[in-house]
Amino acid sequence: MDTDDTRSDDTEPKSRSDAQHADVAVDNEPPDPADAGPTNVKQASDREYRHSVLVAGAGRCTHKAAGLSILIVANAVIQALLVWGVGVTTSGTLVRVLAAIGSLIWLLITLLGMARLGLARKDDKIGLGALASDIVDRYLPFAGWMVVALVIMLFGFWLFFWPGIVVMILFIYMPLVVADGEYRNPIGKSVVAIGQRFWRFVVTIIIAGIIAYLVAIALALGMAFLPNPLAPFVPWLIKGALIAWYVAAFGALYRSTKVGTRTSETEPPIPSKASHA
Hints:
12 helices; single chain; mainly alpha; 79% helix
């Protein structure tokens, strides 16, 4: 009897050790990617916008206020000077065409800078010099895809009003996708990203559309009371602030999708320098 008890006592620690090793082996098994995907997207969603996409966009704008202010004011000055130059010149079509081209070039520079800042999280420190370098590196593919999108949208509006609106909505993530370094099929990635957060996207686009409509009415009414030097400048200032807010908001929503989360994991952050945006 004593011998049996001794053998039982000797085998018990070994059994416990085996059980511990079994637990460790189970714990060390790689997670199933199918299980990890939705969880990661949900965690990204909680981090990026919590309950309101537009509120999260406003928060991102306050954290990147310096860089966004420079982009907004510079764009308003350039656009106002171009409008003023066309208004006071006696030349005809050539000057107007050159002014329109210059306006589009600078507007795309501003939008690309806003997209890069809008994609950054609140605690990311982005140097102004690094941001400028990043804009130079990505401007050509960004401008190319934006021109393609503009042509398609104009064709949609030429067909009818609503097809143009639908195309414009489907392309809404495209500037963010290209600004994030995804140059292959950004239109398709934009459509996929919309589907991954469809109802949140629908609610956000409706609220953003209502706000933009009210701002447009206010600008149309207020233009009559602005003196000539401020008439082209103030509307661009307000529109620039509204665009920056929307870009940051949809940047948060884009980052919460699988497309945006996957890109953020492979895309290196913009290096920080002395001055921060």
